[in-house]
Specification:
The structure holds 2 protein chains of 2 kinds.
Chain A: E1 3-16, E2 22-35, E3 39-43, H1 50-57, E4 65-70, E5 73-74, H2 79-85, E6 86-90, H3 101-111, H4 116-129, H5 145-156, E7 163-167, H6 175-192, E8 195-200, H7 203-209, E9 212-217, E10 220-225, H8 227-233, E11 238-246, H9 250-254, E12 259-265, E13 268-273, H10 276-289, E14 292-300, H11 304-313, H12 316-319
Parallel strand pairs in A: 3-8, 3-9, 6-7, 7-8
Antiparallel strand pairs in A: 1-2, 1-4, 4-5, 9-10, 11-13, 11-14, 12-13
Chain B: H1 3-26, H2 28-51, H3 56-89, H4 92-96, H5 102-132, H6 141-169, H7 176-188, H8 201-205, H9 209-218, H10 230-259, H11 261-264
Helix pairs in contact in B: 1-3, 1-5, 2-3, 2-5, 3-5, 3-6, 3-7, 5-6, 6-7, 6-9, 6-10, 9-10
The chains are: A alpha/beta, B mainly alpha.
Chain lengths: 323, 267
């Protein structure tokens, strides 16, 4: 599969202050590869450098060091060619306040050189696609937050981008609106097959949308993988709660495949295993052979939030992980 | 450039005409910009000339100055608005993520500025003829066209200066949109000949194209401020400033990409 985005050794330090100079190292040698047609997530806590990285990848910001290639074009030299083929959605959508939904779409269509009937057709199609029909003549500043975000998504498709950058696309939205926006993103991706790069600190969002996820912290990518792979990597397993009568031998659990941790108290055994559903059959058989009568079993699955917490609280050296 | 690319480039320029026009027509304040302030300013000064019982030539001298200033103020603010509207709406990054060049921003907004300021000129010309007997067509059509073209070019360079300052200093620079042209009025002799200014302001005035355009047009009303080759100097300087500022605009935009100003101004 060809690469849609390739970043090599991206570093960025922001400098501020006139009298007393201040520096903030936002990115420290980022390497990243995103395949064509992939939905790739950049997950990380606030201040990790997600927006900085995305801004560099979409040509709005220049790195201090490193190279960026988008659709095979050099991000530092060919910014105008890249801009024709990418677009951006950001959380807290902001467009020209007094322009209506329709006028905003026309304006951005013109910025991409769309003229006359071609633009008219495209704008109407996007208004239909995002169900903005009844808001078409409403000024931007009178729209609800959810509608503003829909307009943002509609605007991002005005040039049929091959790469779509979504910067915290559901931040500040109500949960039900967030779900709808995510569904719309998935639907757009299914229909158009573009590459999508999403930054988020919302684990649910990353898990729902992304094929692969890079975990960014303090300007460094700590690891990259699928949501499942990340869960396995931090060794936060699924919690299997087994109510039993009889006895359980700890020796059996210590050596059982996939068991990360366990506790046994009166008639309750809690086992943390790397893949609960997969290990359950073996574990039950093992405990039954040891003389325990199994009465009730429940599995609580780990979600990406646990991974996020683990990554966010650990230092790089603690994790000992690489890309 | 192929015809399809040319059409795209022209559409991109038109985007800025469209934006400024729509926002202007929705905004009551913009009506004040082209009707209230120029007309109030014009009549305040015009009535002062009546009170002072100035002769028609001196009245013409002053009214030409105030009309020129009104034209420049309205035209330059449209050029500045191309960034200021995005700045105030925090939508700057959406404009710059599109494949537009800085000259397209300036050209599009300047076009709408020319239209709006030409309307101001027409309005004030009518008032000056009716209320103070000043005939702005007295020099003839060609001198009038050259004078207006000079004013529009001066406005483009003032508007670009505002854009450059906004990209350098962010929100705190938007005040330049209203103050730069007023500062120019002080130095270029809107209400008086530049030779009465204290040193070194007359020398500074000679570096500003408006000084020459005013001198050119006022010469038809019997005033000679002693400048030679005024049109050459005026258009030469205006051309140099427009080209230099277009280049500087690009440089500052690139700097904004380095410092992250484009992102900061969109948050």
């Amino acid at each position: 599969m060809a690469l849609a985005i390739k970043a090599e050794g991206i570093s960025k330090t922001f400098r501020s202050g006139w009298w007393k100079k201040r520096e903030k190292e936002a990115l420290k040698g980022i390497d990243l590869q995103v395949e064509e047609r992939e939905i790739f997530g950049i997950l990380g806590p606030n201040g990790a450098g997600k927006t900085t990285l995305m801004s560099i990848l979409c040509t709005l910001l220049l790195p201090d060091r490193g190279n960026v290639y988008v659709l095979g074009m050099d991000g530092l030299q060919d910014e105008y060619r890249i801009r024709r083929r990418v677009n951006v959605v950001s959380g807290n959508a902001n467009f020209l306040w007094s322009l209506t939904v329709r006028e905003n779409l026309h304006y951005y269509g013109m910025l991409y050189g769309l003229a006359g009937k071609e633009r008219e057709k495209k704008v109407e199609a996007l208004i239909d696609l995002f169900k903005l029909g009844e808001y078409r003549n409403i000024p931007f500043d009178e729209l609800s937050t959810g509608m503003k975000q829909r307009l943002s998504l509609a605007k991002s498709l005005i040039n049929d981008p091959q790469v779509l950058f979504l910067d915290e696309p559901t931040v500040g939205l109500d949960p039900d609106v967030s779900i709808r926006i995510r569904e719309e993103i998935l639907s757009i991706h299914r229909e158009r097959g573009m590459t999508v790069l999403v930054t988020t600190h919302n684990m649910k969002e990353a898990e729902t949308l992304c094929g692969r996820i890079a975990f960014l912290k303090e300007g460094k990518i700590l690891t990259t993988g699928t949501a499942e792979a990340l869960k396995r990597m931090v060794r936060i397993g699924d919690l299997i709660r087994i109510e039993f009568s009889g006895v359980i031998s700890e020796d059996e659990l210590v050596h059982a495949d996939g068991v990360i941790n366990y506790t046994i108290s009166d008639h309750l055994c809690e086992i943390v295993a790397d893949d609960g559903e997969k290990r359950l059959g073996n574990l039950i058989a093992l405990l039954a052979r040891g003389g325990a009568q199994i009465e009730k079993v429940t599995i609580g699955q780990t979600d990406l939030e646990d991974v996020f917490v683990e990554f966010a609280k650990s230092t790089d050296s603690d994790m000992g992980l690489c890309v | 450039m192929s015809s399809s690319n040319l059409r795209k480039a022209l559409t991109q320029i038109w985007a800025f005409v469209f934006k400024n026009w729509i926002i202007a027509k929705r905004n009551v304040f913009s009506l004040f910009e082209i009707l209230f302030w120029p007309v109030v300013g014009f009549f305040s000064v015009g009535l002062l000339t009546s009170f002072l019982e100035l002769d028609p030539n001196k009245t013409g001298f002053i009214l030409v100055g105030i009309i020129a200033m009104s034209v420049i103020q309205v035209c330059q603010i449209d050029v500045a608005y191309v960034l200021l509207y995005d700045l105030w709406s925090k939508s700057l990054k959406h404009t710059f993520i599109a494949p537009v060049h800085s000259f397209q921003l300036v050209l599009g907004s300047w076009l709408i500025g020319v239209i709006r300021s030409f309307f101001v000129f027409l309005l004030l010309s009518i008032f000056s003829a009716l209320a103070f007997g000043l005939d702005l067509l007295r020099p003839g059509i060609d001198p009038l066209v050259l004078f207006l073209l000079g004013l529009f070019l001066t406005a483009a360079s003032v508007g670009m200066s505002v854009c450059i300052l906004v990209l350098l200093f962010g929100y705190m620079a938007d005040v330049a949109a209203w103050s730069l042209s007023s500062l120019m009025a002080l130095v270029c002799g809107i209400y008086y000949p530049v030779f009465i200014l204290p040193f070194p302001l007359p020398e500074v005035a000679q570096a500003i194209p408006l000084t020459y355009f005013l001198a050119y047009f006022r010469s038809f009303y019997g005033f000679d401020e002693g400048f030679k080759n005024v049109l050459e100097w005026g258009f030469g300087l205006a051309g140099i400033y427009v080209v230099a500022e277009a280049f500087l605009f690009k440089v500052v935009l690139q700097r904004a990409r380095k410092t992250g100003v484009l992102i900061k101004l969109s948050e």
